[in-house]
Amino acid sequence: MKGLALFAFDIRFQWRHGFYFVYLLVCAVYWVLFWFVPEPYRDETAIVLAFSDPCALGLIMAGGIVLLERDQGVHDPLFVCPIDLRSYLLAKAGSLSLLSLIAGWIIHMTSGSIPGSPLTFSAGILLTSSLMTLLSIGVAVRYRSINSFILMIQVYALPFVLPLLGFFDLWDTDLFLLLPTEGTLRLLESLSGGVNLLEVLYSIFILLIWNYGAYLWAYRSYTRYVRMNVGEERGTNDKI
């Protein structure tokens, strides 16, 4: 029940601070963009947008929410209570993944294309967004300013962009198979029906493994930098 309550709290928090409205505008921009994309390239463009959207949402918004909560003093009453940190992190990942999923489907509906496998397409968005959300939280709790966070999250996120080189046939290597975003791209390619069962199983497995690792890292980071410092005076120097 605590997990559901936290999930509902996050949805209300995001709605109250205009996150859904912002993403409505983003989807409108994508819809306009597709008018200028030639027909033969629309499927490829849709895959790239679906790839970048949950990454950007999880990486930037999750960290921004954590910093906003800290600035508003949300963490103090939250962690003075006997709250389950696992539920808190999963609620964050779940609420932002839901927003990514809604945006992903709107993007593809506006592009005029329907995924060949809706389940694998949805799994790719959900697992990628949750991974990036947990990664972002692990970074955000180490910093007090949004500028420091935005600078460092780009460093952490850079390796996950590399599989796009293979997607565009610029550079391909088996090392990309170790990165979760290689699995993301393969799941999203279900848009064209070009993914077999083994690729689906590999993609879900690699994303689940990385999600678990990101969860453990976010949990330890939150425990060290937030939970152990509840009530700490705001304005402390950045912790690195």
From TrEMBL:
Which spans are transmembrane here?
A: 20-37, 49-68, 89-107, 119-141, 148-168, 200-218
The alphabetized UniProt keywords are:
Membrane, Transmembrane, Transmembrane helix
Q: Known Pfam families for this protein?
A: FLQE3_permease
Q: What is this protein called?
A: ABC transporter permease
Where, if anywhere, are coiled coils annotated?
none
- Kindly give the InterPro entries that the UniProt entry links to this protein: FLQE3_permease
Domain of life from the UniProt record: Bacteria
What organism is this sequence from? Paenibacillus lutrae
Entry keyword annotation includes Transmembrane: yes
